[in-house]
Amino acid sequence: MMWLAVVGLIIGIFIGLIIPLGVPIAYSKYLSVALLAALDSVFGGVRANMENNYDNIIFITGFFSNTLLAGILAWIGERMGVELYTAAIFVFGVRIFQNLAIIRRHLLKR
Amino acid sequence: MKPVKLPYTLMVVSLILGFLLTVQIRVSREMVNAPPLERSFELTARLKNLTAEIDGLMQEKTSLTQKINLLEKGGKVAEEALLAEIDKNRFWAGATEAHGPGVKIILNNPPGFGTKSELFNVRDEDLFNLLNELKAAGAEGIAVNGQRVTALTEIRMAGSKIVINTKVVYPPYEILAVGNPDQLKTSLENGIVATFREWQMEVTVTKENNVILPAYDQAIEFNYVKPQEAK
How do residues A74-84 score in pLDDT, each as one tens digit? Predict the structure, then answer.
């Protein structure tokens, strides 16, 4: 199962390299936060899959809404003068580590 | 809860994730080279200011160019005026050829020249007197045997010859004068010419429609005289 995700990732990277799509530097901050949210969602999905309580709808909606919300929140925070995106980075970072740890345990248990 | 569904969704999501990841990495790499965001705002503001400044300077340049053009025109006008002034002064000094209506006077020694005494030959005083009369009658330019009479012209006897502008002139003397022909002719006929005729000299005065005066051909050199400073 895992290798399919890896293949998707590789294909995505390849597409990203082929398509010279650039994001204005001003928006790169929001994209980074969105990227963290996406990463978190993927690891969360993998973990849920391992715990056999994976729900496709939740995963898909979670992925997109998390990504968009993270970006939008960072943008709003910027407008308000509050560095909200650091909070987002913090939260998502912690969750990614947690998910990774849980995935590692599942892999070790087998 | 079908595990079968997972791979495809996960694959699609991973694909999107990879794509975003690549874009972000590329942007980050650009960001390392690019100046920080605040600096870019500052630079944008400066660019605006500088653009406005450039516009102002361009306007200034156009106005200055117009001024330069005007001044150049003015310079041309001044130059032309000066050249015209120079030409006028040269003309007044007799340094140029001139023409106009006037009279032609042929003055010759009494007939039988050489046999009779030379007492009644034309002398320098006779020419002086004639030129004086012409000037008094309003002659504006005079030449004697191709020698233009100017303020510097001398007329004197050198032996039995008459010298004008350091050139020897021989009879018959041809005097050309520009002025009012009628006035010149009458004032001569009623005065000095009558005297010449009494002395047996041969004189004819004819009115001319167009008399051509030669230019004064001597080099003008002032070694001593200087313009007096205006007080």
Answer: 888 888 888 88
pLDDT category at B113 given cuts 50, 70, 90 is low
What one-character DSSP code corresponds to residue A52? T
Partner-chain contact B24 A31, CB within 8 Å: yes
Residue B8 has pLDDT above 80, yes or no: no
Asked if residues A13 and B19 have their Cβ atoms less than 8 Å apart, the reply is yes
Which of B14, B20, B40 comes nearest A5 by C-beta?
B14
Output the CA torsion A43→A47→A52→A56 (10° steps). -10
pLDDT tens, position by position, A6-16: 787 888 888 87
**Any chain A CB within 8 A of the CB of B68?**
no
* Residue among B211, B174, B203 nearest B97 (CA): B211
Comparing CB atoms, the residue among B8, B17, B27 nearest residue A31 is: B27
Backbone angles phi, psi at A17, to 5 degrees: -75, -40
Closest Cα in chain B to A52: B1
Q: Do B1 and A54 touch (CB under 8 A)?
A: yes
Class of B97-213 per CATH?
alpha beta
**Can you tell me the mean pLDDT for B213-217?**
89
Write the residue in A1, A10, A21 that is nearest to B18 by C-beta.
A10
Cα R_g (chain A), whole angstroms: 15
A25/B30 Cβ within 8 A: yes
pLDDT tens digits for B148-182?
998 888 898 888 888 998 889 988 899 999 999 99
CB–CB of A25 and B34 under 8 A?
yes
